[in-house]
Design goal:
heterodimer; A: alpha+beta; Alpha-Beta Plaits; three-stranded antiparallel β-sheet; 5 strands; elongated; B: mainly alpha; 11 helices; globular; repeat (chain A); iron (chain A); ubiquinone (chain A)
């Protein structure tokens, strides 16, 4: 009996406690920078697309929501199209882990509701942003060993000149 | 019949149904308050129009009678429940003059009788639904309500003995000096418990215990027929609160404020207490509920009747 009354009293006291509810549309929750939300394609510091159409993200994707086609231009690889079906995406972040060029990144944005399912298929122009995302100074071709126009083999950062096979000098 | 009485008869159901509808919102807000949430606060100022939105929605829902149900009884059951509750309000004296039949000389018996009729609503609903959960719920409801009606009647006897009348207006008049909650505290406790069980409210909502029976006796009901059970339940809460106010808390009596305001305030207080009970107490097992009734409340109410009678007789002989 006393226990019951005590329970009643303690419950009534909860009227003065802080509300646990986050009033979402007005009060946005804090999302950490590495929150796994909407997927974007980022660019180099000099504005070129980072994606080299290696298809590793599409291979890593457990729900097969990424679809892309490689094309070549100016001596390097680009995606001809890059399509993410967000009605399938589970926001696992495996594509971001698989990406060798930091091109595909997940962002702290989840407000992407649509009325039509087909509106959830994002094309390359929907995914591509103008900035560098989480890695502001990273430029894949500046550190990669692959030669591109304007940068021969051995000219990348922290890269030694290639070994001259015809020389016997150590 | 005089003009104000007819007006009251017309107004009372309107006010009551409105009150019961708003109470669904009040309950959800209060539960939210005690559970560190906000509750429904989006529709209208403070969410006040939530009840309107819910009512509109439920009116437009398909009003479906299952093909396996006993159609006539199935349709009649919610109407019986609603009618029993609404008729009971006829004998509630809101003030010394307001009310429909506040000084009916068998007012209390009338209410107990109407509560007996209310049992038919749940039993018939459970029976005519022709499904297991509904039948189990209906059976539980019948057992629970019939058992608790016994102690409810017995706990009220103390009040009736002290007043010497079954008329609710006389009962309030007899509380001029001291509210009956003091001399009849035992009866008050038993009546509160029986009242919760009678309206099958949490924590005694075993007839509709959702974790074991789906929704109990109204499992098969949809649309406004379900809505009528729902509204009848909330009107039942108001009714029991009105009764507690009338029988134990001195009815409309109180200083400074007008009589009607006092009655409304006290009733609201009891309603809030009912909701607080829901917010804090877990549901007992079915056998525990029955054991509490027959092994604790019945002896307590009998003792209350005996003690009240003894004291009254001793006082009369002095």
């Amino acid at each position: 009996m006393l226990d019951t009354l005590r329970t009643l009293f303690l419950t009534a006291l909860h009227a003065f406690h802080r509300r646990a509810t986050v009033r979402y549309p007005e009060q946005k929750p804090y999302l950490p920078p590495r929150y796994r939300g909407r997927i974007i394609l980022s660019r180099d510091p000099d504005g070129a697309e980072r994606c080299v159409a290696c298809s590793l993200c599409a291979v890593a994707c457990p729900v097969d929501c990424i679809s892309l086609q490689k094309t070549e231009a100016d001596g390097r690889w680009y995606p001809e199209y890059f399509r993410i079906n967000f009605s399938r995406c589970i926001f696992c972040g495996l594509c971001e882990e698989a990406c060798p060029t930091y091109a595909i990144q997940l962002t702290p944005d989840f407000e992407m509701g649509e009325y039509a399912r087909s509106s959830l298929v994002y094309e390359k122009e929907d995914l591509l942003i103008s900035g560098t995302g989480k890695y502001p100074d990273y430029s894949f071709y500046a550190v990669a060993g692959i030669p591109v126009p304007g940068k021969a083999r051995g000219m990348a950062e922290r890269e030694r000149p290639p070994v001259d096979l015809h020389s016997l000098l150590p | 019949m005089t003009y104000p009485v007819i007006l009251t008869i017309v107004l009372m159901p309107v006010v009551l149904l409105g009150l019961a509808t708003v109470l669904t919102w009040v309950e959800r807000r209060l539960l939210g308050l005690w559970q560190d949430r906000h509750g429904p606060d989006r529709v209208g100022p403070g969410g006040m129009l939530q009840a309107v939105a819910d009512g509109t929605k439920i009116l437009f829902k398909q009003d479906w009678v299952p093909p396996f149900a006993d159609r006539g009884v199935f349709v009649a059951a919610p109407a019986i429940g609603m009618m029993a509750v609404l008729l009971s309000f006829a004998v509630i004296p809101v003030t010394a003059h307001a009310g429909i039949a506040g000084d009916m000389n068998v007012g209390l018996l009338f209410i107990l009788g109407m509560m007996g009729v209310g049992v038919y609503a749940v039993v018939l609903a459970g029976w005519s639904s022709n499904s297991k959960y509904a039948l189990l719920g209906g059976m539980r409801a019948a057992a629970q309500m019939i058992s608790y009606e016994v102690f409810m009647g017995l706990s009220l006897l103390g009040v009736v003995m002290m007043t010497g009348s079954f008329s609710l207006r006389d009962i309030v008049a007899a509380q001029a000096g001291l509210w009956f909650i003091v001399p009849q505290c035992l009866g008050f406790g038993v009546f509160m418990l029986a009242g919760i069980a009678e309206t099958h409210r949490l924590p005694f909502d075993l007839p509709e215990g959702e974790n074991e029976l789906g929704a109990g006796f109204h499992t098969e009901y949809s649309g406004m027929k379900f809505g009528m059970f729902f509204i009848a339940e909330y009107a039942g809460i108001v009714l029991v609160s009105c009764l507690v106010t009338t029988l134990y808390l001195g009815g409309w009596r109180g200083p400074w404020l007008p009589a009607g305001v006092w009655f409304a305030l006290k009733t609201c207080g009891v309603v809030v207490f009912f909701i607080l009970l829901r917010a804090s107490l877990p549901r007992p097992r079915y056998d525990q509920l029955m054991a509490l009734g027959w092994k604790v409340l019945l002896p307590l109410s009998l003792f209350n009747v005996m003690a009240t009678g003894t004291i009254l007789m001793l006082r009369a002989s002095l």
